[in-house]
Amino acid sequence: MISRRLVRIKALQALYSYQQGGNYDNVLWQHHTPSQQEHYQNTLANLSDSINQSYDFFLFLLDLPFQLSTFLLEKQAIEKAKFYPNQQKIRDLSILDRMPLVKYIHRAVDDNKRKNFPFDWNDLVGQFDQHFEWMQSWEFVRDINIFDVPSFQQQQEFLEGFYANLFETKESFFDTLNDYYSGWSDDELYTTREIEKTIQSAKENGVVSIPEKPTQNSEEMEMAHQLFTTTCKNSNVYESQVAEISDNWDPSRIAVMDLLIIKLTLTEFLHCPTIPLKVTINEYLEITKNYSTPNSSRFVNGVLDKLRIVIESQGLIQKSGRGLREK
Question: Model's pTM, two decimal places?
Answer without folding.
Answer: 0.91
